[in-house]
């Protein structure tokens, strides 16, 4: 492999991590509250609200059913509006975030649903407000499950970030595509793929270790 | 004595897939300050629903529930939360936060009441001391036994100085020894802190052990209500009889035989009256069942006897027991 490709791969790792980290954080900023709302407004839950739950659920389902590649293209005008450009690492973060929010929301919702109704009843019997119950009862109880979901989500975002290479995003995906696919450099293709696999494994295992520490 | 709860013709109907289910029907009762009040019934009788109307975890569909003179249904969400801080509750499944330490669990109601950090720690430690778990303060609930978890739940319930403690099948998940310990603890708390306790259970032994009064719920209705002693001695409803002698296959062995039940208190329990009967009258009876237990702290016993065929003999035996000051009841054929 020529040295400029090695440099490109090195750069690609940094860009991939950059996209993954920022997109994941932003996806949780949007997805966590959305997931909590989906959970709390469902039937027989503490803030049960049928219309709100229906609308949010529909929105999430629509976004989730769009293939990510299509979403990337659909979002180009929005990306350009937000970041001033539609190519590059920073620009990729926008569609990655938008694509990950509904996934995060569903994951959060399912983690919260695992909290025993008895805990919520106990909280209610103590005179806690719905907001307090979410913050001090439901979220702490669901924390191990939320973290496990987090690891899965970050790995998903990492996978998506590789796809962003198709429309001019940076990172390992773009390198694999440009050198490995368009220039038939199989060694580059396999190297980048191996690195991506390793990154996903590190994220997943890291998540598992943290959860093991956190779960009492 | 002040009245803590007054239930007036409380009804609760659930709507489920268009079908109606009547969980409670016209239940009226009154619970006074300082009492340990038992609510007993078979599973599905509606007792868990009933206890949840006391802190409005369940809304009633008819009648009213008042707590210290306040009609709960007239309060808004914020007011009811304030009231709930005075009505603590413990559960069959303990419902502790698994991700929080014992101490942090006990602090929870104090946090809700916005007590400052240092004060709430001090209070929580005091509560753990009362339930005898001071040394477990930094453990997580998963590492405690069932009985210990229920103690933590009791400490948590008492932390905010509630006026009432509701116990929803609080001992049903525990073995008999732990049940005994938890009940002793509840009794002690009731006496030391003058705390009113409402106990939901399906076990007569729990009621016999610590309750002052009892309400028997059968099929969503109040079958019988009164002092535990009275109901034990003289159960008038079918549901009460079933609970007082749970397995009752007492069928007379012959057409003309009669079954009677003797109930005796601490005093007469120590008298050898069967021996006296045989000695003084020469009549023989067949003992079908006998036991003694502690009811509200007094030793109580009951015995089911089968009397001989002869009508005159039967009358003679019954009057012998009655003259001896024993409570004699006919056991009706099943």
Write down the domain tally of chain A: 1
- Head-to-tail CA distance between termini of chain B: 41 Å
Gross CATH architecture of chain A: Orthogonal Bundle
Examine the coordinates and then state which fold CATH places here, giving the name of the CATH topology of chain A.
MetI-like fold
Descriptive key words:
heterodimer, A: 216 residues, MetI-like fold, 9 helices, B: 334 residues, alpha/beta, Rossmann fold, Alpha-Beta Plaits, 2 domains, 6-stranded mixed β-sheet, 4-stranded antiparallel β-sheet, 34% helix, globular
Protein model, in words:
- The complex is a heterodimer of chains A (216) and B (334).
- Chain A is built from 9 helices and no strands.
- Chain A is mostly helical.
- The relative contact order of chain A is 0.15.
- The model of chain B has no long low-confidence stretch (mean pLDDT 87).
- In chain B, helix 3 crosses helix 4 (117-130), helix 3 packs parallel to helix 5 and helix 5 (146-159) packs parallel to helix 6.
- In chain B, strand 1 (3-16) and strand 2 (19-32) form a beta hairpin.
- In chain B, the strands form 3 sheets. In chain B, strands 6-7-8-3-9-10 form a 6-stranded mixed sheet, with helices on both faces. In chain B, strands 2-1-4-5 form a 4-stranded antiparallel sheet, with helices on one face.
- Chain B folds into 2 domains: 3-242, Rossmann fold (3-Layer(aba) Sandwich); 258-330, ACT domain (Alpha-Beta Plaits), CATH 3.30.70.260.
- With 334 residues, chain B is of the alpha/beta class.
Secondary structure: elements and pairs:
The complex is a heterodimer of chains A (216) and B (334).
Chain A (H helix, E strand, L loop, with lengths): L2 H38 L9 H16 L2 H7 L1 H8 L5 H25 L3 H9 L4 H34 L7 H12 L3 H29 L2
Helix pairs in contact in A: 1-2, 1-5, 1-7, 1-8, 2-5, 4-5, 5-7, 6-7, 7-9, 8-9
Chain B lengths: L2 E14 L2 E14 L3 E5 L6 H8 L7 E6 L2 E2 L5 H8 L2 E5 L10 H11 L4 H14 L15 H14 L4 E5 L7 H18 L2 E6 L2 H7 L2 E6 L2 E7 H6 L4 H7 L13 E7 L8 H9 L4 E10 L2 E10 L3 H13 L3 E4 L4
Parallel strand pairs in B: 3-8, 3-9, 6-7, 7-8
Antiparallel strand pairs in B: 1-2, 1-4, 4-5, 9-10, 11-13, 11-14, 12-13
Helix pairs in contact in B: 3-4, 3-5, 4-5, 5-6
């Amino acid at each position: 492999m020529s040295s400029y490709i090695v440099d490109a791969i090195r750069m690609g790792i940094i860009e991939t991590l950059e996209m993954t980290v920022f997109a994941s954080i932003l996806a949780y900023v949007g997805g966590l509250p959305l997931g909590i709302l989906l959970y709390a407004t469902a039937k027989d839950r503490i803030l049960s609200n049928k219309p709100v739950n229906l609308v949010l659920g529909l929105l999430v389902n629509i976004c989730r059913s769009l293939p990510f590649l299509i979403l990337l293209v659909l979002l180009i005008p929005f990306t350009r509006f937000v970041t001033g450009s539609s190519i590059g690492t920073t620009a990729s973060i926008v569609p990655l975030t938008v694509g990950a929010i509904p996934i995060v929301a569903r994951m959060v919702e399912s983690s919260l649903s695992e909290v025993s109704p008895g805990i919520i009843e106990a909280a209610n019997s103590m005179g806690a407000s719905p907001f307090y119950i979410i913050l001090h009862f439901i979220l702490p109880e669901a924390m191990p499950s939320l973290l496990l979901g987090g690891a899965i989500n970050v790995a998903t975002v990492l996978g998506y970030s590789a796809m962003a290479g198709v429309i001019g995003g940076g990172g390992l995906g773009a390198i694999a595509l440009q050198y490995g696919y368009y220039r038939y450099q199989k060694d580059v293709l396999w190297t980048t793929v191996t690195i991506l696999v390793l990154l996903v494994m590190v994220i997943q295992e890291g998540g598992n270790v943290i959860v093991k520490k956190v779960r009492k | 004595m002040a009245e803590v709860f007054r239930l007036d013709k409380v009804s609760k109907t659930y709507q489920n897939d268009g079908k109606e289910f009547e969980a409670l029907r016209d239940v009226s009762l009154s619970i006074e300050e300082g009492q340990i009040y038992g609510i007993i019934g078979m599973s599905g009788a509606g007792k868990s629903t009933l206890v949840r109307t006391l802190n409005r975890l369940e809304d009633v569909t008819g009648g009213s529930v008042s707590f210290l003179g306040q009609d709960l249904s007239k309060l808004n969400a914020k007011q009811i939360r304030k009231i709930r801080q005075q009505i603590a509750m413990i559960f069959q499944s303990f419902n502790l936060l698994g991700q929080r330490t014992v101490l942090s669990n006990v602090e929870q109601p104090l946090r809700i009441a916005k007590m400052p950090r240092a004060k709430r720690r001090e209070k929580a430690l005091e509560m753990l001391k009362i339930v005898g778990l001071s040394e477990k303060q930094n453990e997580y609930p998963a590492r405690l036994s069932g009985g210990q978890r229920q103690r933590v739940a009791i400490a948590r319930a008492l932390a905010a100085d509630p006026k009432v403690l509701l116990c929803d099948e609080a001992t049903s998940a525990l073995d008999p020894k732990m049940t005994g310990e938890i009940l002793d603890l509840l009794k002690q708390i009731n006496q030391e802190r003058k705390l009113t306790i409402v106990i939901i259970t399906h076990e007569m032994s729990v009621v016999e052990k610590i309750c002052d009064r009892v309400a028997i719920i059968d099929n969503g209705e109040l079958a019988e209500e009164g002092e535990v002693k009275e109901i034990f001695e003289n159960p008038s409803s079918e549901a009460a009889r079933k609970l007082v002698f749970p397995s009752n296959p007492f069928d007379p062995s012959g057409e003309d035989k009669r079954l009677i039940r003797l109930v005796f208190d601490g005093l007469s329990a120590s008298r050898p009256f069967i021996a006296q009967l045989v000695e003084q009258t020469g009549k023989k009876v067949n003992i079908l069942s006998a036991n003694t237990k502690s009811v509200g702290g007094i030793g109580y016993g009951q015995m089911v006897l089968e009397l001989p065929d002869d009508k005159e003999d039967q009358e003679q035996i019954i009057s012998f027991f009655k003259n001896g000051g024993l409570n004699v009841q006919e056991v009706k054929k099943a």
